[in-house]
Fold each of these.
Amino acid sequence: MQTKIYHYRKFTSFLLLLLILVSINLYGQDEERIVSGTITTSEDGSSLVGVNVFIKGTTTGTITGIDGQYQISCAPGDVLVFSFVGYKVEEVPVENQSTIDLALVFDIAKLSQVVVIGYGTQKKSHLTGSISKVTNIQMDQIPVARVDEALIGKMAGVQIATTDARVGEASTIKIRGTSSLSGDSDPLLVIDGIAVSSSFLGTIDMNDVESIEVLKDAASAAIYGSRGAAGVIMITTKKGIAGKTKFSFNTYAGIKSAVRNENVYPTIAEWVAEVGTSPQLDYVASTVLSDIHTDWFKEMAPGGNVQNYSLSASGGNEVTNFHISGGYLKDEGILLTDEFEKFNTRINLNTKIKDRIEMGISIAPSYTKTRQFPMRFHDVIRHMEWLPIYHTEATLATANPGKLTRDGEPVIAGDYADENDWDNWPTSGTEIRTGGDPNPYQRVFERNYTTKTLNLLSSGYLSVNLAKGLNLRSSIAVEYRSMENDERTGVLAHKSTSDANTQTDYESTSHWVSETYLTYDKNFGANEINLVAGFSAEKTKQFESELNAGGYVFDNIPTISESNDITRGVNSREVSTLASVFGRLNYAYDSKYLVSVSMRRDGSSRFGEDTKWGIFPAFSVGWRISQEDFMADNSVISELKLRVSYGTNGKDAAGTYAHLALIEGVGASLDGSLSAGYAPSQISNPELKWQKSKEFSPGIDIGLFNNRIFFTAEYYDKTSEDLLLDRPVSAITGFSQVTVNQGIIKNTGIDIELTTHNVSSLDFNWSTSLNFSTYKNELVDFAGNDRVIFNIDPKRPFDFIAIVGQPVSSFYGWEYERDIPSDQLNNVTYPIGTASKEVYVKDQDGDGEIDNDDKVILGDPHPDFTWSLTNTLKYKVVDLSFTLQGVHGAEVVFMDKQYYETHWKGSTNSNFPAADAGLVRQRIFTDDIVQDASYLALRNLNLGVTLPKSMTQKIGVENLRFYVAASNLLYKMADDYMGYNPEGINETVDPEDGSASSTVVNPLVSGYQRGAQPLAKSFTIGINLNF
Amino acid sequence: MKIKIKIIIITIASLFAATSCEDFLDQGPISEVAESFFYTNDKEVETAMIGAYAKLGDVYQREFALTEMRSDNTWSVEHEGSWQEMEELNVDPTNSLVLDYWNANYAVINSANTVIAHLDVVENATLRSQLQGEALFTRSLCHFNLTRLFKNVLYVNEVVSYEDAPDYPQSTESAMYTNIAVDLTTAIGILPVKGDIKTGRATKGAAQALLAKLRLTTGDYAAAETLLDAVMADDYALEGNFNDVFYNEGNGEIIFAVEYLDGVDGTSQDFSREFTRNGGASGVNTPTVDLVEAWGATDSTFEAGGNDSIRLVNSVVFDARDVISVGKFVTTDGVDANYSGNDWIVLRYADVLLMYTEAKLAGGASTTDPDALAAYNEVLGRAGQTAVGTISSADLLLQRRFEFAFENQRWFDLERFGTLQSTIDAFMGSPVNPNMLVLPIPDREIKTSNVINQNNGYN
């Protein structure tokens, strides 16, 4: 039986033939001969350049040339192996053919069998740590502005939340829980091997992304030493593949709107039905105001369009390959004035100079422009529908004439209407306002907050093959970012013109990294060795300037120089350096017993003389039971691996000069003019060093039925210690805190990933993947203090407590018991919707009085568990995929509630029994404002049709697909949650003064939600075109 | 093969060696100075003293909340959170206003002690004693601020490391006053007089007036009188127009003021804005009805008038929106109120005159002492009031209420005159727990110390 041409499109028939070939092999002979052939791709029959062809079990081999042809000398009985990145490996026994032509099958699953692990790659089967990988399949079709948003729900143990729903704003990423008490818990971002700022998650184009790996356990991340403690996200961009140049054009456009789009206040008619009569309602009903029906939600969140275009070309020959691309995204967001635009280009170029020398460059500039929604959302929607945006002659006639001036000028028709314009009208003490804030439209529209960033990441490498299996790679990368942030508050934005203000911030960061490392690969007998050793050095320089000016009397010229009142002009510079050596040994015996040992030593300028250097070792082992002889006959279990890892890594979350005692310039006025003064600004702590994480993480991988069912479960026990934290110190030191290494957090959890290929046939494919994660967070030590309370905002000081034995950032206060009866309250219907300011709270210790001893923990922001379920189906030309995702058991301190219910108005009246005064507390200090932040979302849905090749190839198109996609099409929030984004958290609240303008992330007060902007859903249609 | 291995080893070794370059990892601050390079000469120590004055600017930002808002003078519009705790005299030890005030005062004390610790590098002897006097004055002022509000606080006369801080002892109220008096007496001996030093810095007169106030607080009327005599002989006088006291900065009545500048971040204040409804807390330190009615304003819309109209119209603003607010320290037109430049007056000559009257009254019910009458009538005269022939304790207290409304004096006046409990009880409409008349020491301070105790009545 002979077969000359193997040209299969069908996997099943291939398997059959393989069996036949194997049997043929038994009759092979032993004479050397020349075999030649052409290798093509099964997709379109075009030839593949650079395919490895070698004789199995030997190192004899060749690669295919420009036309996909090869020639190799072999003997009958040999088996030829054909391998090419991204394609299924084919093995063909040599019988007595002289020609072996093959069409290799493109295999996405194949791509995922190699995992990027930092300074190299590893076969997934040989992994001993916890690494999740997602390959970019349709992720570039999710209509979001940032890469991190597209990753939501893709990996177990990687919790991504849209904490700020404004378009273009960073998501919060937590890998295996909160492991830090100061600064962000952001994982390290590595793009094509270069550690860069996490802001690149907002600027890189998903169309350029090949795959994303997340190093989750300490052992895997330890190769990044002092920066790996919060995990590592590794992005690999697309490279050119030798062969015909391929063009790819992807575009989508669509609309966005809010997931929840209800007004907080009912309509006038609904109010009348609800409360019957009130002074406000009566007055409104008697005037033209009853005809005004402003939909404040719609005015503030009118929705928007999104559009995205991306064009790339990639190709090359066996010497040089390239991938170039350009993209444009415009996302209008859903809020008034919200907008995000991104332009990006990329060149990836690799070439071989000689057989042994390879070099490449990558240049990726991008530019983004964001106009932000400038207000907290609760402030702009808590208005009744009877408030018009603009005054008309008719509305002016209903208002208090004494109020109708602004900065001394009369208010006229066309001016913004202010709720307070009706104060004390028609009688003293009457008002129709709900909050007293200026008109929302003016507050938003008369402000212009714009941020422009330029990001450039360019790198080059040189790789030299020194000897067989031994490679030296040296690279240099330069990252440059500049950000210009303009915040203009116009003269009409606030109650008084004197609040007009321009703030211009400029920031630039330049960062270079130089790395050199050797890799050595050697197989002998059943032993496989992979060795990496190298060093790196990097330097970061930052420059920041901030200008602030007021005193504007009109908006014509909003620049700083036009102001006669420059209030702030500051700039600062910082430099930090990091030097490292690292090494790793991966060893496998018979693909059965796996060992990985790694070590990194980092030196950082951020720490003191004796603490500059830290060592971060890691160790992991694996046992592939499925490879054992006794499992050989098992037809059910195709993969069974036990593995366990232990590693340490760190985080250098300290300020650039945190170990030094510093003196800063402070100005004092003497004789009425500014005099230079200096004052201590930081306590010295020469002992300051890295915070460390130690993690023990066992895991199991089970593959059934030829890995059609693949199950991974991992447990972790991560202790983060020597935590960098701002320990409160007595004020008599002149400071309120000192940065120390004192604190321990423990995160223990389970991550499960299950992938099944339910149906895999010629016409119909269906696969499912399920992720599940749960973790427990516990504060083990907080600088020796049993409990420290932090509160936010002197006006509404809700307590957060750091208490040993409980999760970080637990909510603290009194437990709500019952409301005060309405006949004992003032103003229950005035302003409308008022809830009582105070409530009866639970006397926990039963001593008959309410005091601080009755405060208890009211909740925390850590979810009980998170999960996601993705289904991918393909039937002939139609494909469908969707991801359901859920977070359960997380809670937020929902501050908006007291604004919606004007808690401060509903005070007790004389009916309230005086004896009960000690039994009530302000509602906002109770769990009445703690709400369930659980949700269940249909994160994305994608339905596409690919036109048959027979049709498209006639017009020179290789692939043409149309699709419709939706994100957050369904989004179920908890019943008791009143807001617009359960994921919303004010990450950067300053616990000292509550100012939201602080840029310091404080994990100790996480879970505070105030004024969160609504989460968006979108509906898009798109085209993928390859030619 | 062996040669290759050698090459590899040498290459790896050289890579490791290259990174041992420590200079690369030695990066010093650029926008700040490391302490080890500072306090080396006269100029640097003097700028450290100016730094202490800059820090003094933080003390007065929210002092009104701990003083005026707890008294019968002011409250807030919205009655919320930490502000409400103040006006209801039910202050939690975690109250952030308390913590901020405590921190701000001790930051000044630390800055002053830093100056004292580095006096030995100052070569110019005149400058050295002046800086010592200034440091002692600012330190005393902050110790006095803290003692009056919290009673049993910590007397800190050295730079305290954070390692030593947990065992630093707490003082009693009387020990505090004794120590402060010693510091101020030393300062009086070495400080320059008004005119020989820039305004905004400590003078002999300021130290004398402050010590006089301390003496009145401890009931040492004779000592107070001597000190006040000295200040009255100094170069101070009442400003002719009451309004000019607050808006003609650096006027002759000022004995010590913390200076702020219009529109300079870090050297401006925003309490002027907080006093209005545009403030971050929507109107705090708002005059109470009780105060405005005491002033004789008649109806609920508080039209200007009453029996002390000069001080009333210059102290309270009745704006077009029927909102009443503080009329002292109003931001200059056209200036961003977040960066107001109105100075905070700590001590002024009218206070000296009325303190003198108080010293003469010496705890009695009334006095007809001619010197006391002269001083008292001088203040009344500027306010357009008729001179009197006898002064009762109650009259003096009321005059002080009108004269110094919103200048954070009321609480301490009531305390010195022995009517704090009764006045607050009457104002609140029910008896107030006497323990609540002393503020709680910040919870954070209790938690970070091994030795200090919370004030009675707080947990």
Amino acid sequence: MSEAADTPIFAAILKQDRPRFNAKFNAAKANAPAIDGAAFLAHLSARVAPLVEAIHERFPHRASSAADELYDLSLTLFSKNILGALPRVPPVAAAWEELFPSLVHAMGKEPKRIGGAICNALVQLHEAPGARAGQWMEEMKSLASQFFEESDDGEAFLSAGKIVAWRCGLAHFRSGALQTARELAQKNEPLARAALGLKGSSSSLESVIEDAVQNPWWTPQESSKENSEPYIAGVVGAFHGFAADKKLGAVFVSPPRVVFYEGNLFAVDSQNCWQVFADAFGASFHRAGPAEACPRGDSTSKWQLSAHGQVFSPEGSAQFDELESAGSFAAATNTLVATLPHSHSIFFVAL
Amino acid sequence: MASIFDAFRKVPSAPTNPHPATTDAPSASSAEPLKVKSFDVADLYAGPVAAGEGEGAATTQGLDEKLRQAYFWIVNTAIINPFYDIEYSEGACPSYSFGDGKTRLQLPSDQSYSSFVLLPILNLVLRRRCLLVGGPGRGKTASAILMGVLAGYSLKELRRAIQHGQPQMTISDLLGNPLPSTLVNAKSMDEIQIAWRSWLGMRVKIIDEYNRIPTRTQSSLLTVMADGYAEILDHVYECPESSWYLTANDEAGGGTYQVIEALRDRIDVVVKALHFNTRFMGDLLARVEAEVKPEEIVPSEIVFTEDELNEAHKQILAVEIAPELLRRIEFFCANFEFCESAGDQFEYKTKDTLKLSGVDAHLVLSAETGKDKTKDLGSQTRNGLSVRALMTALVFAKATAWFRGNAAVEFEDVRQILPFVLHDKLVQDADSPFFEAGGNSIYRVDKIGWIRELFDLSCAEYDRLDRDRDDPVQRFREEFEAGLDGLNEREIRARMAKIERVLDDWSKTRKLYGHVFDDVLALKYLHHRYTNYLKWLQWKK
């Protein structure tokens, strides 16, 4: 433990209520015997104590309750091996060391809620194939130092976190994240811009968000008007056997086909039907049912794919040799999706 | 109960009462249907860490789910209580018969509950009065304290505020004292200031061993419990609506002091502390060794704010009771009040009239009336049900349904909860021939089983009479409630004639059982409403 002299407030809090803190630890360990007591102490010393000291400096009256909540939160994380000697979600430890200290005001107000939410988000980002927990951490640290050094508005921080999480690969959160961006823009436009990754953009935020809503291939760097030629925006999907490597979309047991149904993209192989979310920031796959439940496509888009790999419509065309002899294709407003008969991949063509 | 020592911090995961998923219309082959998903971005913050209110909490969790989580935390962690005496089943369930007495054990097939935990928890959200009875050391006070912690009070506050019944307890001990300085100097009562006891302002009130409170002090307690205020020297303290928990070692109202009847009558639900099952001694040992006191480490996720409890109460009152179920409850409740020999005037033929007369009830109740006393459910009780008891029964049925996540009360909710609500309300006539009939003597002792049997018998009779289809009172009531506007004299007289014909038929063919008694009075009521309206029509002419 860092010497009690370095963290006198936390040490005093622990000492004052020692039996209760010990009872909590014993109870947690009884259920999760793998909790490493030494690792827990080290965590208290290196991460919790400094945070409590920092909270005490700014809000002396909150230090005791914050210590309590952070202790409980730590126990929960250790019980589930999210933190520990061999943690299964390393970014969470990094959050305690690098992110929480930048959020003293917000953490001081609601340590368990804000801290718990951030940990949950990192668990999701870490475990979702293709998602980028490290990027999320870096961007959130940057937002914390820019906007939250003196602010206790944990709600705004979490809202920004939703937007950043979408941009870090959780594609299924896209529409919710953009709605959050709209709402956040009303209260704190600079924060909303930063969360969307807009650097130095002078465009109206509302119009930028609207572009993003309409076009899944929107990126902060791209002007929606510039690139009017179709292009391959991404390739996802792999054989189910690569799932252990967390390869994005490694869910298919056989080469899939694709359809659009009620605006949603589905990819079906010989066993299962998957709902696919994909945009410029990533993709995610969610099982929707057995293969036989896969709906018929209902898209009325005029974009087509020829057997020679030409993507065409009355509005234009582009040649993609890699899409020659496609096994299936489906098109919606901004996207044409294609598969090949001998591949587990899905090709996304931005229109 | 392998999970009894699950993490004391672990709150059971939602959903705690998973209902079969409502699926889309199955495909022609009845295969698993397609599930089109949409995602709430707030779920980014849902995960292994329950973060409390707001973002990070289970965003779709209702208050009923939170209460279920509280319930399961208590039964899995806080109290070693491996009982499921409130049984729900879907379809057939295994049943076994033990011993010469043919004692029946049933294995329920749907989520079932322990009354010792469920009823206090329902009482918490209903803000009623719960009596916990049982021998010493069975967790009655500990259970009450847990309820206080769930309501957001600290242990310190609760321990200071528990009222411990003891023979020297005075009204001042219970309610407070006038401040001596103001008492000395006051020239009128208004100038006296009262130092009220802090427990009066709490939303969870715990009275430990209430049957050890002297009778005089019990009267003061009654005012607080029944009327929600305390009074000393013309000064009144208005208490907030509260959930009450009283404990006693004797359910019959005995003890150091006899509990006054008015106070006993204010108890809404009686819960027995069940015995300790010795096969779970290991769990007890583990608890002793870990020095864990559950009331000290209640997870914050299952602590309710005052607003949440208020909201839960509102939601419970909105739970529906279907008319068909309500009629069964009406039919059941109607069985008990009637006493043919208690009065000459029809309306006075009640057990209440008998009681007020002071005549030996046994003499009157055992008089021959021509009815089969083993079949007459009313013969099994010495009293009927008060309005207060009926209201309590309905509210607890709603609460049970709400707790189980349903928008409407189910038959089994009523069947399971009625015995606990009516436990002290229905006074058994142990001399009734019913209890002499084969196998029924056990109901002299097991009141819960007895009331449940009463309800089952009542429903059987209801079905035999085909009341769902053949209920003239219901038909006449619906006709009446459609309104009288626009009806002429001829139509009114026709309706009155129909009522008279039914009464004539019943007078010749039906024995006067309790439910018939209430039906007859209901018809009299309707007939008289029409009579008044007819007179008005004639006056108007």
